[in-house]
Write a structure and sequence with these properties.
This protein is mostly helical. The chain has helices spanning 8-15, 17-38, 44-71, 73-79, 89-108, 115-132, 143-165, 170-193, 195-201, 206-210, 212-241. The chain has a single domain (2-241), classed as Farnesyl Diphosphate Synthase, CATH 1.10.600. It contains eleven helices and no strands.
């Protein structure tokens, strides 16, 4: 079954590129560029670190979405929702996830001797697994599921980059908060759009429990204003340290 993965179209479907490629990768590219700006004059090693971190982020997102699809195979089938993992079978799906895990770890392999970086990487993968898989399956634990998704897909990968470039300052923590709020907005929107499928499959997400109306209110009147305020605070702070902004 795995040789069939060589088809580009199926690989993109399997990693769900359309769900994260255009929305989650550009912010990581922007963050990496800021790491490079902060390190000026930067050496060639910084560009290598940048490339390694971007590869890690892409592999991590593909892995996280893959684990979620793997854990949702039965519920997606009941709801009539497409899931590329159905075409792999359990053994093929596990093998594919191990490949993605290996790519992500290999990308940062030369740097994992740094204990802080290794801890960040381990925490990111652990939370990605806890979001989808039992016994925790944070996806169905209300607010904890929203926070876990936002952190695993946004803030924690950013912290991995910060550890890689050794850039822990006020600007980084503001940027990290901004990433978390962006992640909260996206996962709320995603759950709202999936509400019909989740209701059919009886997947008890935050939106399923709290209701679509309240979730949209929370997204528009709480999360998004906080996002704008945090972005403003970050711009004011970072522009003092990075004149290029």
């Amino acid at each position: 079954m795995l040789p069939g993965l060589l088809r580009t179209g199926f690989v993109l479907e399997l990693i769900r590129w359309k769900d994260w490629g255009h929305s989650k990768m550009p912010p990581f590219f922007a963050a990496g560029y800021l790491f490079l700006l902060a390190n000026e004059p930067h050496a060639a090693q910084d560009l290598v670190r940048f490339a390694a971190w971007i590869l890690f982020c892409a592999a991590l997102l593909a892995f996280g979405y893959g684990v979620n699809d793997f854990s949702d195979r039965d519920t997606d089938r009941r709801a009539g929702k497409g899931n590329a993992m159905h075409r792999l079978g359990p053994a093929g799906a596990v093998a594919w996830l191990l490949v993605l895990l290996g790519i992500g770890l290999a990308a940062l392999g030369p740097y994992l001797a740094d204990r802080r970086l290794a801890l960040m990487v381990a925490s990111t993968y652990a939370l990605a697994l806890a979001y989808s898989l039992p016994p925790l399956r944070l996806k169905e634990r209300g607010l904890a599921g929203l926070l876990a998704c936002a952190l695993a897909q946004r803030s924690l990968p950013l912290l991995v980059g910060a550890a890689l470039f050794r850039r822990f300052d006020l600007n980084l923590w503001l940027f990290c908060a901004l990433f978390a709020l962006v992640g909260l907005r996206w996962i709320l929107l995603h759950q709202v759009l999936d509400a019909q499928f989740d209701e059919q499959a009886r997947v008890h997400t935050f939106v399923f429990t709290a209701g679509t109306k309240f979730s949209l209110f929370l997204m528009k009147m709480v999360v998004f204003p906080l996002e704008l305020a945090t972005l403003s605070a970050w711009l004011i702070s970072a522009s003092r340290d990075l004149p290029a902004l």
